[in-house]
Specification:
Blueprint: E1 2-4, E2 11-12, E3 16-20, E4 26-30, H1 31-43, E5 47-49, E6 60-61, H2 65-75, E7 80-84, H3 91-100, E8 110-112, H4 118-130, E9 135-140, H5 143-153, E10 159-164, H6 167-172
Parallel strand pairs: 1-7, 1-9, 7-8, 9-10
Antiparallel strand pairs: 2-6, 3-4, 3-5
Helix pairs in contact: 4-5
Length: 175
């Protein structure tokens, strides 16, 4: 099974997360900023609005898209999944973006959790173990998600490779 995050893993977008601080001030975060800061902000009582994430705003290919295409060629997209914190309403927009760029992951294999906690991704992964999957490749840009998935998979007798996708690092490489 291949499980990939969407934002800053397969695609970069200009979708923004709007937030309201406990004191009433408002602002925006891009996907990368949100991935790094959300746990601290959530703990401080910030509220988030993901409305822009219902669509793919000015999407571009991100670091692992080409690897996903190679995995699709080698294994077919049948056991490839997108696991994103985006709201469920984003499922079709993600599907359309991927398909337009040659990645043919079935619509039913795109899970938009609508929840942005590392635990939610780890629990989803553990459900896949219970379905019989025993060889995992997982990639996400958020380190806390990578760590949570690695921790949960280490508790099962399964093969695993987990990887953090790094947009800024990959943009600076000569590829």
């Amino acid at each position: 099974i291949t499980v990939l995050d969407f934002d800053d893993t397969l695609a970069t977008t200009e979708s923004l997360v709007r937030y309201t601080a406990p004191d009433g001030t408002t602002g925006v975060l891009n996907a990368g900023e949100y991935a790094v800061q959300y746990q601290d902000l959530l703990a401080q009582g910030y509220k988030f609005d993901f409305t822009e994430f219902n669509k793919v705003v000015k999407g571009k290919l991100a670091p692992l898209f080409n690897k996903a295409l190679k995995l699709q060629s080698k294994f077919s997209p049948k056991n490839m999944f997108i696991l994103t914190a985006r709201p469920p309403a984003a499922q079709k927009a993600i599907y359309d973006f991927l398909r337009a760029n040659g990645l043919n992951i079935p619509l039913k294999n795109i899970t938009a959790l609508g929840v942005s906690t590392a635990e939610s991704k780890a629990l989803w992964i553990s459900e896949k173990v219970s379905e019989g999957y025993n060889d995992f490749y997982f990639a996400d840009d958020a380190l806390q998600n990578v760590q949570a998935v690695d921790n949960i998979l280490s508790q099962f007798d399964v093969k695993r490779k987990v990887q953090q996708a790094r947009v800024m690092f990959s943009e600076s490489m000569n590829i």
